[in-house]
């Protein structure tokens, strides 16, 4: 690791750090009181619990390890007696190499590791100094003082930055739904450091997170694409209605396919065997077939090991559409984001062999007496897995 890298890492991992350009006044070249680094008045938190008070001196002895190489027993002192009102860092021993005329213009970095132990670095090249500023998010005008602690970036901040970077990279007004779903999911997983094991252990939670992230990304794109449109007065009601319908239709068409894309990823991570959009009797195309259409078409394959899953964001009026999607499969599973269905409709679904699958968080919205017949996504995965092992 280079001296630059060590200086950056040390400053980033410390509660208090300081930087300044070395000046002639530090080296004694100006004929000042003594050689030693002049420290700005706001540097007192490096060494003291409170600022120095005019009328008295105070000091603090510390050990400083320089360039991760050698140590000095040094003195931080506040001069407040008489006309003086300054802080200095002194006592480096004979032959100290960083207080010469050649060091003027170098960057001094001091990092507090404990009350009495510090790390010191001196960066000489322009490139090293600029790289240090960039890593610590400061400019050359912000030296000669305590380096501001960088506020740790939150997961929400990282997610938004990932969204904005994606929007900026787009070459089209709106990307295909699958691209939108994939990028929203990728942004969420990377921003929140989600692992495959976390997804496997709680697929219900992660699915809802992905859906929410995708909708947020979609709205980010909308706000970017329509910002000029909504600032410009419409010339007629017809123009307003046309624009509104375009926006609403795009929203509706995205939602259904979005659910399918994220479910597919959940099943892939769960290591299930499945196919999507296969063709069965009467040219029907169920959303998910487990394990595959070859098994479904094989009359010798055990029907009890065939599973169908349809996905619909809402299903109050559309659940009957799945009844004839696969004649060999008696129980049709239907994943929905619908929250709450009447007892009569649930009983009718049960009579027709439809079993609902819902996110665990939505289960409480259904009548108590019917919850035992409703699967969570995790429960459905377990059912399918049992047919494939």
From TrEMBL:
One GO term of the biological process aspect: DNA restriction-modification system
Pfam families: EcoRII-C, EcoRII-N
GO molecular function: DNA binding; type II site-specific deoxyribonuclease activity
Membrane-spanning intervals of the chain: none
Domain of life: Bacteria
Restriction endonuclease type II EcoRII C-terminal domain: residues covered: 218-381
Alphabetical list of InterPro entries matching this protein: DNA-bd_pseudobarrel_sf (IPR015300), EcoRII_C_sf (IPR038365), Rest_endonuc_II_EcoRII_N (IPR023372), Restrct_endonuc-II-like (IPR011335), Restrct_endonuc_II_EcoRII_C (IPR015109)
Keywords, sorted A to Z: Endonuclease, Hydrolase, Nuclease
Name of the protein: Type II restriction endonuclease
Naturally occurring in which organism (per UniProt): Marivirga arenosa
Species lineage: Bacteria, Pseudomonadati, Bacteroidota, Cytophagia, Cytophagales
